[in-house]
Amino acid sequence: MIKYKVPSKKTIREERTVLLFDENGNLTQVPLVLTWSSRRSWSLEVSAGGVVTLRLPHGFSERRTDEIIREKSSWILKALEKQKERSRERELAKPRHTEEEKKVLEQQYIRRARTVFPQRVEYFEPFLPSRHRAVTGIRIRAQKTRWGSCSSKGTLSFNWKLMMAPDEVIDYVVVHELCHLCEMNHSKRFWSLVGTILPDYQRRRRWLKENGHLLDL
């Protein structure tokens, strides 16, 4: 059994390397990021950059952590292969801009994002229940693995690369992060709230999941 040392609450991230068996019984080394937080349940994600992250509640048992990795080994390896394929597709589809052109385009998208996101937040915020926390700020960032985030203090952050996505996808990310002002999790209540505001959010979410890797310069 793989041994993991659960860190104190001050430690929120550790990097490990695990050995996983593929369908042919071959061993593959996989870098794994473990994070611990005050969340109530675990989640597993393979990002567009091929980073495998297992998010756990504080105090999660070593035995169950090991079981999750073993049970999900096939899924992890398939997801990593899928991300590699998407990376190859992205390289083939990517416009061949010079570095100077990329800088100019990025600044143009960032300027647009600084206008669009506040407008969409202002539009959708009244749809939230009155109990929601207030929006304290909006940041435009270049996150590598996230399209948006919501801090416990009410600061919303959005990835400027979403300016290359359809408007309806931008609205989905805005609503998603706004709903975290009511539910700082991805529980059934959270998704129910998202669905109340955007009944077709699953279609928009699916587009981002399938095409998000193409939103790059």
Characterization of this structure:
α3 packs across α4 (167-179). The chain is of the alpha/beta class and 217 residues long. The chain is 42% helix and 20% strand. The protein contains 6 helices and 7 strands. The chain has helices spanning 62-71, 73-93, 99-124, 167-179, 188-197, 201-211; strands at residues 13-21, 27-37, 43-46, 52-57, 137-141, 148-150, 155-159. The chain folds into 2 domains: 13-93, no CATH class; 99-214, Zincin-like, CATH 3.30.2010. Strands 1-2-4-3 form a 4-stranded mixed β-sheet, with helices on one face. It has a 3-stranded mixed β-sheet with strand order 5-7-6, covered by helices on one side.
Sum up the structure in keywords.
single chain, 217 residues, alpha/beta, Zincin-like, 2 domains, three-stranded mixed sheet, 7 strands, globular, disordered N terminus
Q: What separation lies between the terminal Cα atoms?
A: 43 Å
Under CATH, the homologous superfamily of the largest domain reads Metalloproteases ("zincins"), catalytic domain
Strand content: 15-25%
CATH topology value of the largest domain: Zincin-like
Number of helices: 6
Write down the secondary-structure element order: EEEEHHHEEEHHH
CATH top level of the largest domain?
Answer: Alpha Beta
- In total, the number of domains comes to 2
Which whole number gives the mean pLDDT?
88
Helix content: 40-55%
User: Class by helix and strand content?
Assistant: alpha/beta
Provide the CATH architecture of the largest domain: 2-Layer Sandwich
Q: Strand order within the widest sheet? A: 1-2-4-3
Largest sheet report: 4 strands, mixed
Overall shape: it is: globular
